[in-house]
Amino acid sequence: MTHRSYNIDSHKKGFPDTGKKALPPLTVPIEPVATTPSISEDELNDLLFGDEVNKLHICEVPDDAEFGHAIYRDGVYKIQTNTIGRFVTLRNKHIGNNEYHYLPSDGEQSFKMLLPKIPKRFLSGMVELFTNIAKTNNNEVMVQIFWNKTTEEYQMCVPYQEVAGAAITFDRNSGDIIDPNLLWVMDVH
Fold first, then answer.
1. Long-range contacts of 73-82 (CB under 8 A, 24+ apart)
2. What's the N-to-C CA distance of the chain in angstroms?
3. How many secondary structure helices (H) and strands (E) does the chain include?
4. What is the pTM of this model?
5. pLDDT band at 111 (very low <50, low <70, confident <90, very high)
6. DSSP state of 24
7. CA 94 to CA 78: how far, in whole Å?
8. Cβ contacts of 56-61, under 8 Å, gap ≥ 24
């Protein structure tokens, strides 16, 4: 079977194979253009994000914002809140040909801790441990800090780890890190 191309000229003359039957004229239905009603910023957020929790802010991160995005001159910032705290991080940095050059200000990354401060004795103990390990065998060591949901206190753990100079490997699928009662706050090394 041979395959022949089809173009507008052959359409007017009929099928290339037979040349007998003319095809009906090509028609494309044209839909009337509907005017788009203007919508409020809240309605736009609802359409984009599905609810009012994940808001889009322009050149501001309100104190009560738990989730969402903020657009500034230098990029798009993500607002995310969890048990540990509220994080505002730069997600898409605009370099060179800045899409938002008309906005009045650059954004700022931030973190606001929602849990109590980590006790000073934890930090002092970590410094002492790190110093002893460095003096003993010139290696690095990692310490994990967890928030115990039941006792509402911090818990420090030194997981089993393989250390080679400044490289640390540990198993994230065993030990305290998989305890559902413990919230993993940070690794320090």
1. 73/98, 73/100, 73/101, 73/102, 73/103, 73/104, 73/105, 73/106, 73/107, 74/98, 74/100, 74/106, 74/107, 75/100, 75/107, 77/107, 77/109, 81/114
2. 71
3. 3, 10
4. 0.60
5. very high
6. P
7. 14
8. 58/103, 59/103, 59/104, 59/105, 59/107, 61/88, 61/107, 61/110
Count the Cβ atoms, other than its own, within 10 Å of residue 71. 19
- pLDDT, one tens digit per residue, over 62-91 is 888 888 888 888 888 999 999 999 999 998
Q: Which two tokens stand for residue 62?
A: 């309100």
Residues 21 and 13 sit within 8 Å (Cβ to Cβ)? no
The amino acid sitting at 30 is I
Tokens (6 digits) for 47: 């359409």
Sequence ranges of the domains in the chain = 41-113, 120-188
